[in-house]
Amino acid sequence: MVPRTPGPARATTTHRQAPCNPPAPSATFTCPKPARPTAGGTHPRAGLTADRLVAAAADLADEAGYENVTLSALARRFNVKDASLYAHVRGLRDLRTRMALLAGGEMTDRIAAAVEGRTGKDALAAFAGAYRDYALTHPGRYAATQMRLDEATVTDSPALRRTAEVTYGLLRAYGLEEPDLTDAVRLLRSSFHGYCALESAGAFGAPRDLEASWDRMIDALHLTLLNWPRGAAP
Q: How far lies 35's CA from each of 17, 22, 32, 68, in Å?
């Protein structure tokens, strides 16, 4: 959480008169006017950057919910006016796009670290576990990763390209190629996302242990990937 920074000191209406030096005999001379205070006695917010705004927005999403992240809420967090934010982001869409890239990069870093040095079912379980942990511990950030981004943004983002590399690397170890790779990515994403969404909403009412069900789902996905129906799709 980015702490609220104190508001700028109010400018006083008293100013020290700048010294008037006598002009040279051939010079035209005008005494300099004292500096005037900015409107409302405020000054530009020092240290406010796009990165700080995006990080604060991601924290706010985790705390209050993704849908509650607005420019007004973020401006209040920094004790500035809404208009001040437009020097750093183009608007709410731009802010949320940046949040999606930030969260996607964080999530991929965790998944990549979890699967490093693992193969087969161990890699799948590590991938799934890191995915689930991020989704449950950072619900606002995770919600941002579900935002649909335009193709140019995806292509230009190193974080999202790495996401594809890690995911496709896992699935190629099962011997899959296109179009089966895309189908398998969709299977994993819908399985993990669906389970996490239901779990976070408290929608699993049966007394069966959630961890046991999760482990069985991983077993089933592993067997499905091992026995993928080759050449069945056009």
A: 9, 21, 9, 41
